[in-house]
Amino acid sequence: MSVNVSVFGKTADGKTVEEYTIINKNGTKVSVITYGATLKNIFVRDKNNKLDDILVGFDDMDGFINRSDYQGVIVGPYANRIGGASFSVDGKEYKLTANEKGVTCLHSAGEFNTAVWNGAATSDNSVKLTYRSPDGLNGFPGNIDACVTYILTDDDELKLEYKAVSDKKTVINLTNHAYFNLGGFDSGSVLDHIVSINADYITPVDEYSIPTGELAAVENTPFDFKKCKRIGDEIDFDCEQLNFTGGYDHNFCINGYNGKLKAAASVFDPRSGRKMDVYTDLPGIQFYTGNFLKGDLGKDNKPIEKRSGFCLETQFFPDTPNKPNFIQCTFAPGQEYTSETVFKFYTAK
């Protein structure tokens, strides 16, 4: 195992962005850049032993700065959406930046994913990135010290370990927004990928993609992935939830949540033979099928078309601070937020 570091580029204000690359004994390769603590590349073998990059994204800083739809980034301090761009802690209301339709705060208005994090190789197979979020930025209370560690094992597991702590009571909910295509980043639609999700319920949304507060059973709906099925089988089914979001873009409630690592989802690409299992110790996972990708140029100057990638974002439920019936993610001063997500890659018939 080895970790190599190089200069990836510079931001508009001259900050240097580093790239860290981890390679294991199988030739599996993971690259991370310090801009947005971004997962840039994952090269894994297919059924014919061919290495391909299975992450949709960009090759250069211009792409990440000017054409990004959150490809591969860490989002926070609160991932996903907060309705009305506000929430309250102990009776005090905090107004947030409403960066989506002038109504919603999405991914904390892009704070973590546009920051340059401090990076360091912490072993021959891990990279740690750290960032301090200043009190009040985009309306969120507290100076928040965040840390994400990427670990690649010789068993082709990519582990993401998250930690964060604030000096004020605040909400913390971190995730990685990688877009996967197990056929390779340039292999086209993901509609033939076969997916299973360990969830009996979703959190249905309104027209602004904000959870209504209900839990809706997936059985006998297009959201039932308890048994494996193609992404494309029911993605265009005429129902309110799919019409609101143009396809899948919903939080699934992971069965049996108890704060410990559990199987959350599995994806198989029949053409390449690649399979990916997802594990998390969080209660939810956002399944998003790239419905709003619009053909911007990505890696190798190839367009990133609609539904050419999918996301499985492990998380607390969206809009949790405004939904008291959801599992909460409000942390007292000095109380540490921790979570772990594991992506395991292999080939299957």
Shape designation = globular
Largest sheet: 9 strands, antiparallel
Strands ordered across the widest β-sheet: 12-13-14-15-31-25-24-19-22
The number of helices is: 3
Decide which structural class fits the backbone.
Answer: mainly beta
Low-confidence stretches: none
Notes on the structure:
It contains three helices and 31 strands. It has about 350 residues and is mainly beta. The strands form nine sheets. A nine-stranded antiparallel β-sheet has the order 12-13-14-15-31-25-24-19-22, with no helix packed on it. Strand 24 and strand 25 (about 275-280) form a beta hairpin. The longest helix is centred in the N-terminal third of the chain and has 8 residues, at about 105-115. The two termini are about 30 Å apart.
Compact summary:
This protein has three helices and 31 strands. With 349 residues, the protein is mainly β. The strands form nine sheets. Strands 12-13-14-15-31-25-24-19-22 form a nine-stranded antiparallel beta sheet, with no helix packed on it. Strands 1-2-3-4-5 form a five-stranded antiparallel beta sheet, with no helix packed on it. A five-stranded antiparallel beta sheet has the order 21-20-23-26-29, with no helix packed on it.
